[in-house]
Fold Alpha/beta hydrolase.
Amino acid sequence: MNSDEKNLTEELMGLKFPKPKLSMEKVCNTLNDIAETAKSVYKNSIDDIDYLFGEARDCVEGCGANLDNARLRLTHRGIQYLTTTIEILSKNHLLPTEFIYYIYTLVAEDIARDPKPKLFHFQNPYEAIWDKESPESPKLIEVDPEKYIPNPNNESWLFIHGMLYKGMNHDGTDIEQIDLNIYDFYGAFEAEAEMFKEGPNANIDIYLVSYDSEMNKTEREVMEKAIKGNVIASVEAFLFLLVAAVYWREMKDRADKTGEYILPFLKRLKGNSGKVITHSLGCHVLAHAGQKIHHIDNMGESFKEWWCMNAALPSDAFSNTGDFNRAPYIADYYEDGKRTGTRVWYSLSDIVLMMIYPLATYHTALGQTGAGISRQENFIEDIDLTNITDVYHGFEGEYINRLGNCIRNFLHSETDKTC
């Protein structure tokens, strides 16, 4: 074996990694261009279909439905273009996904942390959020998923937050990037949903899942040092993008552990008519739990609906061959012969999922593309938020404010055409 072959073997074995010269500006521009092209592909195709059909929908019975099907098919085709292109770029080393993974192997032990998952029953949402005359502090009562028996006569609503939330009993010694907890997550939703605005509702129980998904100062510094020590060019302007991509792998492990933790509680909800609301990484938590419940135990549904919002899951997660193909069975809702228990809320312009997720996983995210043509027929409903939430991803602030009307319509209307 000559020296060149030896060096190559060492690199492939992970024993040596040459310092790359990264152009993160080009990476970001490439990802953005791909997403914009995908949007243009299906937008222009839809315009063409509308033109070609002309007035036909008004004069030919059933043509309107066919036109909608054609439009939907073209939309999915544009999204498929986006998904395929990202995978090709990753596999051909045009995105620094292997570099991200290498950095993760260097720091994995240093950033690993117990997520300390907890389950809380929020007992006074009206008094804590809406009651201005006699306001109360939030009553969050911790319950044991192994032993707690939910009220079978009530709807159980479960909320699971995403990344950058601190654990409920955090000691405060770390410097958080964002100082949020599960009450902030539910509070942001309730402010728009207005479920309890008119007063207490004895028929609905609110449950909140807490797990440590924040990035503390020490973890951030460890990843920054590893990245800077393994590149030639300066990446200061895009350092947090690389750090977030590396950190995602640790977050996935924490999400899996949290999903395991809530499994016993979910099993006791069999046949419940409530809803589960998950966002970003929180979707991974429930997908992990749902997959285990229905792949191993083949149990019935735990909820009437699952709102899977801007999910940090692979685009094909719910396809027949996806990693979480059984997870959507955790929600079950039939109407007019159609099952729409799982609603996938997505935005093609979601900047976090567009930039970070492909770097960390080699794939596009379900929350950016929707389930599309990979979805199981009459099983999952895509909700396109591109023109509503645009680039916004973080649950608080602009993202949830823009979704207010959509959320209220889904809660108080029987129609599907609400977004």
Remarks:
- The chain has 15 helices and ten strands.
- The longest strand covers residues 204-210.
- The longest helix spans residues 24-53.
- The CA atoms of residues 287 and 327 lie 5 Å apart.
